[in-house]
Request: fold
Amino acid sequence: MRYDLAAKYDLRAPRYTSYPTAPHFGPAVQASTYRGWLRKLDPAEPVSLYLHVPFCRHLCWFCGCNTAATRLEAPVAAYAARLGEEIDLVTDAVGARLPLRHLHWGGGSPTRMAAADMATLMAQVAKRFAIQDDAEIAIEIDPRTLAPEFAAMLGEAGFNRASIGVQDFDPVVQRAINRVQTVAITAHAIDALHAAGISDFNLDLMYGLPHQTEASVVRTAETAMAFGPSRISLFGYAHVPWMKRHQRLIDESALPGTIDRLRQFDAARRALERGGYVMVGLDHFAHPSDPLVAGPRYRNFQGYTTDGAATLIGVGASAIGSLPQGYVQNASEVPAWRKAIESHQPAIVRGVALSDDDRLRRAVIERLMCDLAVDLDAVARRFFRDPEDLAPSIDALAPLVEDGLVAIDGWRVTVSDDGRTFLRLVCAAFDAYLAGAAQGQGSKAL
Ligand SMILES: C[S@@+](CC[C@H](N)C(=O)[O-])C[C@H]1O[C@@H](n2cnc3c(N)ncnc32)[C@H](O)[C@@H]1O
Ligand code: SF4
Reply:
């Protein structure tokens, strides 16, 4: 780990779950554009579906997701009803029963919904899409709100993958982030999922949280591995209180600095690798038997995936869709989203139509994020472009090459193991929307 370079590259950069990234979506793409794009989908081509639930029981102070805490049942039930209307609206616009290869419920906490409402929605999805026999059907789970009947419903509805939020098992850290979740609560949730026939699961861990230390993240990683997850995510805490006001409740004086964040990541990484997990991309670890390890791998709004579908349909407030023509995003706030759905209009408020240059750079950035290497010539050929068009980006990599973080051999760009930590900055060099790698946006790159 090149701790000596931390100050030099202590910059902000996007996480590249899309390219162009969401801050570059604009109002030129609206509901009418989306309807046109949906109509043009190939009815034989499998798609993916993302459903967003922006509710939680309690708010974790670190949370960067689009969600709100509520103790009331009525708004969640009303939301579920509108979600059903949106599924009808979107599939009517497509005009065909599309094959479905990946389905993902995210949030927020989908487990905050009533089990009966989710079962109804899943039946509706099955009516509106032809769910393939080998489809991945996944859900994000807050173990603190997973009722046994909810877990049973997931098994009956055909779910085969769960992503479970943990963050850190240390009670001091948990209190500092307003998320008290004992090891027993996590164990109960995993047992309930197993009993429902769902044994393939991911645990979300974080580093860079208040009061975390190298020792505490290693202990958390070891406890997590003992549950036998097929994947573990290790996210660096993105502290953006100017965007997420509740993060002001986090005691900034207890946050680790950049070097300590790097040390925590490195310590947890070594523990996970000792335990037999293989690092994938920026922040994922997978059991060698998991398909993410052999690939092919892709990157979308949920992180790393084996889902290579060209179309992702998003439903729910703030959901992002990715279609062959470009990206679309629904209104983030539930009232604005609901108003659109109630007037039988897609709730799209922004997006971006992809240019040829966007497609080329998107493919380059996706390969780097997934494989830490890219053959620029091969990618450029795929898009009938000249790799020379990327020459300014290669020039922008010069400082990283000099520091041994990236190697360039002909048109092949390879990120070194030391360079992994700086991966977002490597990608930023190919981002035409940023004025060079050194002026990235978003959260801290390290
Ligand atoms: C939608 S939540 C997972 C499901 C469920 N809501 C839960 O928390 O158990 C998605 C994950 O994003 C990660 N996350 C949330 N806020 C973050 C932030 N500010 N920085 C980095 N990761 C964050 C956490 O690891 C969290 O588990
Ligand atoms: S981390 Fe999960 S449970 Fe906590 S507030 Fe965010 S979405 Fe809700």
About this structure: Residues 436-440 have pLDDT under 50 and may be disordered. Residues 74-94 form the longest helix (21 residues). The pocket of iron/sulfur cluster (ligand 2) is lined by residues 56, 59-60, 63, 65, 67, 107-109, 142, 165 (CB under 6 Å).
